Amino acid sequence: MENRVIEIKSQKNKKIKIGIIPGHFATNHSHVNYFIDMTTVKTHHIAAKETARELAKAYISNCNIDTIICFEGTEIIGAFLARELAKPDHSSMNSGKDICVITPEINMNGQMIFRDNIQRDIFNKHVLLLISSASTGKTIKRSVEILKYYNGKLAGISSIFSAIDAFGDIPVNTIFTSDDINGYKTMPLSDCELCHAGQKVDAIVNSFGYSKI
User: How far apart are CA 178 and CA 203, in angstroms?
Assistant: First the structure.
């Protein structure tokens, strides 16, 4: 399957690249016809830095951010994003700020939690949610719910890839969209056209990668 990887460069920054693999893939929320490989962007510091630089442009002059909550392995990007936002620059609302970068803990029941020593960086703070991928919006919905539970103030939503433009009235600031992947489809588990056509699932996928079936 790896031999079918197609490299896609961002229209915003040619140094940012992801890999896509056509096929039939099952996620926790849906079935999709492409696996999007973001390994390099999430684990290589140069790609992560370039990604953070592009994402920061949406918030430099008009968004107060105290904390970045990183989901789905985006911690390296989150750290670079905090650095970009806090650079000494008179045009930045966050210039010189010590922005907190955290990630939720997943308990034994699969719930996202923050321990008491971390909650102070969320309570009444302006929080930016950073996720790797949004295909249906369910991950964003879950993230917003946990933010509300801990009394955080949603300042923005950013992602590497998103098939949705916004969550409610909050735009999703993203590097790649479904327009960058020709024919990209996300389908409900119960109404997958690939399943109905008898096409076997190639792999189970999540934010860590894929496992072939």
Answer: 20
Average pLDDT over residues 55-69: 94
Element (H, E) at 105: strand 105-106
Rounded Cα distance, 111 and 142, in Å: 10
- Is the predicted pLDDT of residue 90 greater than 70, yes or no? no
Tokens, residue 122:
């969320």
Domains of the chain: 2-212 (3.40.50.2020)
Longest Cα–Cα distance of the chain, Å, equals 58
Better pLDDT: 7 or 92? 7
pLDDT band at 92 (very low <50, low <70, confident <90, very high): confident
Q: How far apart are CA 158 and CA 128, in angstroms?
A: 7
pLDDT, tens only, 5-44: 889 999 989 999 999 999 999 888 889 999 999 999 999 9
- Could you say which DSSP state residue 171 is in? E
* Helix-then-strand count for the chain, H and E: 6, 14
Residue 76 to residue 168: CA distance in whole angstroms: 27
Query: What is the rounded distance in angstroms from the CA atom of residue 210 to the CA atom of residue 213?
Result: 9
Chain centre to alpha carbon of residue 180 = 16
Q: Are 68 and 130 in contact (CB under 8 A)?
A: yes
pTM: 0.91
